[in-house]
Amino acid sequence: KTPRAVMAMRFMNGLTSFVTSLNEPAKLKILVETLGFGHLHLEVTVPRVVIFRDAILDLLSAELGAKLTSEALEGWRALLNYVGGAIIFCKAHYAARVSLLLRSWKLANEKSSQQVQMETTEAKEEEPYSGEVGAAAETALEDAPAQKKQGRWRRMMRQRTSPNTAADEGLANSAGGGGSSGEAVGSPRATDSDGSRTLKSGQYVPTTFPEMFVWNAGVVGLRNVQWHKEVLSSFDNIVQNVANSARLQEECEALVLRISKCSKDDVKLSEFKSCMLAALRQLQPKTWDSSYEVAWTWLWENVERLLVKNIGQPPVWENELGKVMGCLDDNEMYRIRRDIYERFFQLCPAGQDYFKQSNTRLHYIATKVIEMTLNIFQDPWAVVEEISALGLRHVGYGIPTEHIAPFVTASIEVFSGATDNNHALEAFRWSLGLVSKILVRTILEGSTIVMKAVNANSQKLLQKAISCAPRAKRAEWMLKIQVGTQTISPLYWAIQSGNLDAADAMIKDLLTIRADRERYYYGVDALFERHEDFVARLVDEARVLLPTLFDGLVWRSRHTKDGLRRVNYYIKHLVVSGSGSLADALRPLTASKDQTIISHPVICLVSDTLWSGVVKRQFILSKIGFLFSLLVFMLSQAILPKLGIQHSRGLRFAILIGRAVNYLFSMTRMIAFHVRRSCGAYRNGRLVKVFRIPFPAYLRNFYLLLGFILTLLLMAMCAHEPMFYCIGETADWPTEDCDDASSVQGRYTIFSMIAMFIHWLLLIDMAVFAHKLSAFVLVVKHVLSEVGRFCVAMLFLLITFSSAAACLRHDKREFRDLPSAANCLFAITVGLFEGDFREYFDAPFLLMCIFFFVTVSAILLINLLIAQLNCSYEYVYADMVGFARLTRASLIADMLQACPPMRWSRFVATLRFDQRVEFDEGDVGLSGALQVKEPASLNPVMVDSINRYGGTCSPDMQWPAEQGQDEEDRFERIERLMQTALAKLSKTDKRHESAGIDSKNTTGPSGLSDEEEEAGISSGSSDAA
Asked: Using an 8 Å Cβ cutoff, are 123 and 205 in contact?
């Protein structure tokens, strides 16, 4: 049963299309015929049409009052009479024929389970198969033991007919139209590329219409006719839309374009008809009779008439239109585009409300439209898909389809003034008409009530819209609208268009767990199967919706036990993608640098699970080499050289070995790493400029930059190694004491000191093991910026006062020049000055300068630094754990890229996402979750977060209205009724008399008797005929 909201939208769209087509009788006739074909399953009679028409006219009279003139009322009566009569006429003349076509087409494309069982039974009895074919045959045989006897009987009957005889009979049947080659028997041996089964005798056993058609075409020597394949690809749409005249014409026009591109010779449509009828006869031998023959012949004659009308014309049109397009220069194209919009705004002034972009954008749109008229001739397959995608985007834009016809008219009028080539003008008119038909159909088919609610950005309208959906299709209504092969996601469109209220309502609805007695419904699987990059999309376009998403992935029990509460985190799709690989959800979150969202319980659980399960071990293994290098570096540079190496040759050898290890292993490994990364960065253009010098972008990472500097220092140390300089200089080698090494000894020790600093700074990365320690490190990094500003201010004061003091003439050595004065002032600031200020009484101006400096630096500047550090720490302290988790999450995202697939698969298996997790004891719920227990007082839950419903458990039924929604709807209805009643009471008696109807008469709203109205509808029926 169609939901009321959906039916209301369809009803209004239908009435609107009828009214807008009143000035185009041919178009109105097609619309009314389509409506009539769509109501063939209903019992439409004249009295029922009268009742329906009167209800509409009564509603118009009540709502419009005096605004509804007698002429308008008469027009509505005539229109509704015509529509009702057309429905009755279509049912009387075409109902049985269309119903027969659809029913037989469905049977022709269905493979009966009994036939499959018979074929697999024969295959099992005659020849054992291996692999998948054998397994399938054995399974079918086990499931259908009752078919064995029938299979033996068919095998015996087949043996009575030789292969050649069977082939001859199949050829005769396909050529003459009698019999059924589909009844040829034999065991399947292989499957052709076209999908048909092969018999031992070399014949086929087709089971669907395309297979049977290809088989018959091959028998009569037409197997490789390319345009047959194009008709076959469209034939399902043709048959399914036999009752839709407009869609049938559109499909045939698109088919003409495809046929013209794949066939340069004369197209004999009768060939397809003969193969089609033969295939249908053979697929339905028991039910086929003359009525089937008449119905399918009638269908193909209609299709053939539409095809013959334009077949052979597209190549000529393409050539002529291409010539005209090539002759138009930029000025002429600009004039055409300008005139199109001027004429369009004259024909449809309301279109200006939708074309509000800049002129450059409008000209771009017009250019694409004009180019599309030629491109559809050149590549009809791609352009038709492009138009369908464009139509779905226009669904999101909310553009009325009534504006498309005036735009097409304006374009044709303007183009006709730009050329006198009749063939080119006809090509432009025909192709643009086809484009508009496809566009309008796509918009109408894609304009669901969900998309209308999204365009209105209303949570209330959206809830009403999705409440009409069957419970099994509720998620699909919000995630997928498909027209042909093109799809659009209402949720993605809401995010992209900025309608975040509607997007928030959809996410909440998708992540609400609903249940009946038989099953649970939860949209998380549908959401992430449709949009695997949903987290990344929210980070980029709607970060405010991330808390809504993550809150919906948590279920907390209302019941507690031993002070603990069950909590299910449905994090499967944040850890594992649909293909089983890593779901890279942490990387966009870490790139956002949002310490609040990274501290959400769902993300904390994801990062902790990945850290403990995979990354922790991998991170420790990656740091073992660095820790060993640091230990060897300390021993060879800072510990062993201080133990009296001049007296121990063995100790000197140990130092030499340690340094050699640093150079041969640590240094070479780091050189290889940075050379590889640098070459990749320069090759791919991932660079960052510093003073106009390009550097690899990866050096923006603090730890990688320190590693690069350490590599340079190790290379410098290797080049200045004193023991290498002393080789051959003394017999007491290895040693550092020789004449050649004395010149490099000082530089070597400096390089060693800096390298030791960097080694220990790189060890700070190990702080990720503890969140509090990592948070402290981050706080230190944050407040260092305040210290840096203090140092700049202090340097300014030192230079200022030391230069001022150096200008004075005095005998104090500490302040005789600028460097000395700066040194003394700095010592005074940090409390290291040992002089006595009483010695400066003889230089009062110098003493005043010193006291003033102390006042500004020690009293003002240092206390200001303390206050700044205090405020900065308070600011960072609130989120320092979030910053620490952000650092760990970034490390996890980087480390997982190098995780071996086998290790990842084993880790995912331990999570057991495929097992269903309990809600409460004995209540087995949904899969894809990790269950933990938290303290009951941490997040109190008073109401069960699962919406449970009684009644029917059918997936095709809608969910009952949620509590509170019905009450709101009732109040709205009452308010509308009160407003209507007040409007009626406010009318004058004169208006009542002019709109009133004599209750003593039995006339309808039109003022005619029932007999006259029925006669009017009958005349409308004859008009439709």
From this structure: no
Which residues are bridge partners to 470 per DSSP?
Answer: 958
How many whole angstroms separate alpha carbon 452 and alpha carbon 697?
A: 46
> pLDDT grade, residue 140 (50/70/90)?
very low
Residues 732-754 as b/e (b if ≥16 CB within 10 A, e otherwise) read eebbbebeebeebeeebeebbeb
Nearest to 254 by CA among 442, 430, 483: 430
Residue 255: phi and psi, rounded to 5, are -65, -35
- Across 88-102, 427-441, 921-935, least confident range: 88-102
Place 674 in a pLDDT band, splitting at 50, 70 and 90. Answer: very high
Q: Which three-class secondary structure state does DSSP give residue 916?
A: strand
Exposure letters 637-676 (e unless 16+ CB within 10 A, then b):
beebbeeebeeeeebbebbbebbbbbbeebbeebeeebee
Sign, Cα dihedral of 747, 749, 750, 752 = positive
Distance CA 248, CA 528 (A): 37
The pTM for the full model equals 0.71
Q: What is the CA radius of gyration of the chain?
A: 42
Asked if pLDDT for residue 179 goes beyond 50, the answer is: no
Pair 424, 320: CB distance under 8 Å: yes
* 897 vs 26: CA distance, rounded Å: 63
CA dist., res. 590 & res. 882, Å (int)? 11
Pick from 510, 504, 521, 325: nearest CA to 424: 325
User: Cα(421)–Cα(323) distance, rounded to whole angstroms?
Assistant: 10
How far is CA 732 from each of CA 417, 653, 745, rounded to the nearest angstrom? 103, 11, 18
Could you write out the DSSP letters of every residue in 361-387?
A: HHHHHHHHHHHHHHHHHH-HHHHHHHH
- Using alpha carbons only, what angle is made at residue 657 by residues 654 and 662, rounded to the nearest 5 degrees? 130
Q: Which amino acid is at 679?
A: C
403 Cα distance to chain centroid: 29
Environment class of 809 (CB within 10 Å of its CB; exposed 0-12, middle 13-18, buried 19+): exposed
Residues contacting residue 632 through CB under 8 Å, at least 6 positions apart: 658, 661, 662, 666
Question: Angle at Cα 271 formed by Cα 267 and Cα 277, nearest 5°?
Answer: 145
Cα 319–Cα 386–Cα 433 angle in degrees, nearest 5: 55
Let me know if 203 is exposed, middle or buried by CB neighbors in 10 A (0-12, 13-18, 19+): buried
Q: Cα dihedral angle (854, 857, 858, 861), rounded to 10 degrees? A: 150
In 3D, which of 682, 671, 676, 669 has the Cα closest to residue 708? 671
Distinct helix (H) and strand (E) counts, the chain: 45, 15
Query: What are 284's strand-pairing partners?
Result: none
Residue 542: both structure tokens together: 């709607």
Cis amide bond preceding 960, omega within 30: no
Res 314: pLDDT:
93
User: What is the Cβ-side half-sphere exposure of residue 747, based on CA atoms within 13 angstroms?
Assistant: 14
Residues ≥6 apart with Cβ < 8 Å to 107: 283, 284, 287
> How far is the CA of 180 from the CAs of 92, 111, 206, 285, 681, in angstroms?
33, 16, 11, 6, 68
pLDDT of residue 707: 92
- CA-CA distance, 94 to 109, in Å (whole number)? 23
Please, which residues have CB within 8 angstroms of residue 703's CB and are 6 or more apart in sequence? 762, 765
DSSP character string of 542-580: -GGGHHHHHHTTEEEEEEEETTEEEEEE--HHHHB-TTS
Residue 1021 — very low, low, confident or very high, per pLDDT cuts 50/70/90? very low
Neighbours of 606 (CB within 10 A): 24
Distance CA 167, CA 550 (A): 65
| Four-point Cα dihedral 297, 303, 306, 309, nearest 10 | -60
Q: CA nearest 799: which of 818, 815, 782, 784?
A: 818
